[in-house]
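User: I'm preparing a small set of examples for a lab meeting where we compare how different chains pack in three dimensions. I only have the primary sequence for this one, and I'd like the structure in token form so I can line it up with the others. Please keep the answer compact; I'll paste it straight into my notes.
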Amino acid sequence: MVDVSIIVVNYNTFELTCSCIASLIRHTDGISHEIILVDNASLECSPDLFLQKFPSIKLIKSPANSGFTGGNNLGIQIANGNTILLLNSDVILTENSIAKCLLVLSNNNKIGVITCMLRYPDGAIQKQCQRFPSILLTTIELFRIHKLIPQPKRGILMGGGFFDHLSSIYCDSVWGAFFMFPRTVLDSFENNQLPGNFFMYAEDLMWCYKIRKMGYLIYYSSETSVIHYLGASSSESVLRLKHQNEYAFIVKNYGWFYSKILMLLRSVLYATASNRDYAKEISGIYFKLFLKGKVS
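Assistant: Understood. Below is the structure token output for the 296-residue chain.
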């Protein structure tokens, strides 16, 4: 077995994916690894072009677009690594980040997932560390009680928007853009594959929740970073899908009544936020979810 199986899912992002793979080859040293590219039935060009440019990779040509979870599970089926790294096709390595994260993971068997710092191309940090959905934390934020809590405790308590991401931390969930975990985590999942029926968005939240339930920890390392060309889309349809999936996750794992209270609190929270245009849109989505009946 190799040390790390790196799985990249491509869907109509040929140039970005090529840049991702090239950076993997350039910056991954000192560990044995394999690069598995899953093409999710792209229409942009023939996936065989990847093999022409990078003959050492393993290429899976999916007959249909099976989404983020489905694509990664196709890669997992042929992965030979003791450790699995799910890497977005829009991530570029600038240093030996994989080996650095693997060292941390290897030295702490309590860690079930490790990620690293994600940066925009201009160097700004993407705030990915989150707490699981919570009525208590939402209420604290709604009534501005968090302002009475000094940093860095405020960041640790509230997650994402409150944590500066300049130091390493254990958190509840992280994004799936750079998502490294020991293969043994899969032993607790059905068919040794990642669970989920979301086509896209909120899969990483669900994975982290289930992995935390197993007794593992989720770790964010600030000691190394990668560039993440995070999509800037904030269209209503994209935002609605993200929050609908999160709502479905909350209903399933916290219960219908809990989800209704949380959606109402979030709706009020965003309605009173200072960023009026964006916040008003989010508030409306949460209020519609509050009114929503059964989750489809």
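A couple of notes for your slides: The mean pLDDT is 91. The chain has two domains: 2-129+165-228, 236-291.

User: Perfect, thanks.
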